[in-house]
Specification:
Blueprint (H helix, E strand, L loop, with lengths): L2 H7 L4 H5 L16 E2 L10 H14 L9 H20 L8 E4 L2 H14 L11 E5 L8 H10 L2 E5 L12 H4 L4 E7 L11 H10 L3 E5 L18 E5 L10 E5 L1 H6 L10 E5 L2 E4 L13 H17 L1 H20 L4 E4 L10 E6 L4 H10 L2 E2 L1 E3 L4 H6 L5 E5 L6 H17 L4
Parallel strand pairs: 1-13, 3-4, 3-5, 5-6, 6-7
Antiparallel strand pairs: 2-8, 7-8, 9-10, 11-12, 12-15, 14-15
Helix pairs in contact: 1-11, 3-10, 4-10, 5-6, 11-14, 12-14
Length: 424
């Protein structure tokens, strides 16, 4: 942990944070306390976010950008204020660079889709190459596979080292003058690896490629400056950063959003419509066809305010400390193997592991009987699992409300799993 991160933990009161999350007080079967270690899947929501959703629906519910009445004006003002809040949260200077979608998957599909329809040099076609990595979430694999299938482009990817990091030894041979797009996860949802996106972006821009970053696991955990990543587009989602489900974000450089074609057609995204043809509204409306996720966007704005109030440096420091504690605890159990970096260096909070002789679903089910919620499966990262020779894994993912006592409960639960299945 760096000096700055240590300083950021001073004054961070995890119990006070936990008091903001009603669900964390829930008792489960046999009166066991909830130990929620599935935040990489979806995070819990604080009172401040729940209240923002409730107040919108109670007092200001209306469509945005079209109703000429007081409720419509209030809803529109709140919706656009949320956009400005989210822009500030990720370091964007222009709120028009923030496009609201329904999730990060839609954001990534948006970019891949419009590049198939773009004019001139931006269009991806035969002879072009798209570069991704072997550790990507399926949402940052499948859209690029579809793009390549539909356009005749070629998909290439970075492999992984045995330690669960990107193999960058052949970066100059992989990212070449044929490369049109490089799309990479900032933080792996399975391995926890924090990737050097700025370094990759520099190489990509040397050859004129666009850079797309999947920030779904990074934005909730780290202080973010989207421009500093070197990315042209950054996708992330609300429900992993204490916000509602059904809301995602695509941040894109303004000039690219203006240049590229729309993704969906319909109301709100047009300048004018004639039977002979239509013209488009400027960004971000150009990419927000139809009634948007209004309440969800307002809830996301409240989530960004909440995280800003805690301070993302403090959140990152807590995440780093609790991840290091988790890795230490898992190392103490024989027959448990961590997939990905085993030290909390350039590492996020998702920790996937295998218990020898026990299927991950069985691990999860037994842990659940003790009140510990983890994820079991391939975590939408089948290629990365295949790289490490396993079909699936158990994943524990802490967040800003996780305590060391909860990690102790996890470790004790895994010991119980091993005894139950007689592999201890």
């Amino acid at each position: 942990m760096t000096t700055g991160m240590i300083a950021a933990t001073v004054g961070y009161d995890v119990e006070r944070v936990r008091a903001d999350f009603p669900i964390l007080a829930r008792r489960l079967a046999d009166d066991r306390p909830l130990v929620y270690l599935d935040s990489a899947n979806t995070s819990q929501k604080p009172e401040q976010v729940l209240r923002a959703l409730d107040e919108h629906y109670r007092w200001r519910n209306s469509n945005v950008g079209r109703a000429v009445h007081q409720l419509g004006d209030a809803a529109t003002a709140d919706y656009e204020a949320a956009r400005a809040t989210v822009a500030t949260f990720v370091g964007a200077t222009d709120p028009a660079e923030v496009v609201f979608t329904k999730n990060a998957s839609e954001s990534l599909n948006l970019v891949a889709g419009v590049l198939a329809w773009a004019d001139g040099a931006r269009r991806v076609g035969p002879g072009d190459e798209v570069v991704i990595t072997e550790m990507e979430h399926h949402s940052n694999i499948v859209p690029w596979q579809l793009l390549c299938e539909r356009t005749g482009a070629t998909l290439r990817w970075f492999g992984l080292t045995d330690e669960g990091r990107l193999d960058l030894s052949g970066v100059d041979a992989l990212i070449t003058e044929r490369t049109k797009v490089v799309s990479v996860a900032w933080v792996s949802n399975m391995l926890g690896t924090v990737n050097p996106v700025a370094d990759i972006a520099r190489r990509a821009h040397e050859v004129g490629a666009l850079v797309v970053v999947d920030g779904s696991q990074a934005v909730p955990q780290l202080p973010v400056d989207v421009a500093g990543t070197g990315a042209d587009f950054v996708a992330f989602t609300g429900h992993k950063m204490v916000g509602p489900t059904g809301i995602g974000v695509l941040w894109g450089r303004r000039e690219l959003l203006e240049e590229l074609p729309p993704f969906l057609g319909g109301g709100s995204m047009i300048e004018t419509v004639r039977m002979e043809g239509s013209t488009w509204a400027p960004p971000p409306a150009k990419y927000e066809a139809g009634t948007p996720p209004i309440a969800e966007a307002i809830g996301l704005g409240a989530a960004a305010d909440y995280l800003s109030g805690l301070g993302m440096a403090a959140v990152a420091a807590h995440e780093h400390a609790i991840t290091a504690y988790t890795l230490e605890g898992l190392r103490s159990i024989s027959g448990v193997s961590v997939l990905g970096p085993t030290e909390a260096v350039d590492r996020g909070g998702a920790v996937s592991f295998v218990v020898d002789g026990v299927h991950p679903h069985d691990v999860s089910q037994v842990l659940d009987s003790y009140g510990v919620a983890v994820r079991a499966g391939h975590h939408c990262a089948k290629p990365a699992h295949r790289r490490f020779g396993v079909q699936s894994s158990t994943r524990a993912s802490a967040y800003l409300y996780t305590t060391k006592t909860e990690i102790d409960t996890l470790v004790d639960g895994i010991h119980r799993v091993r005894k139950y299945f007689k592999v201890a």
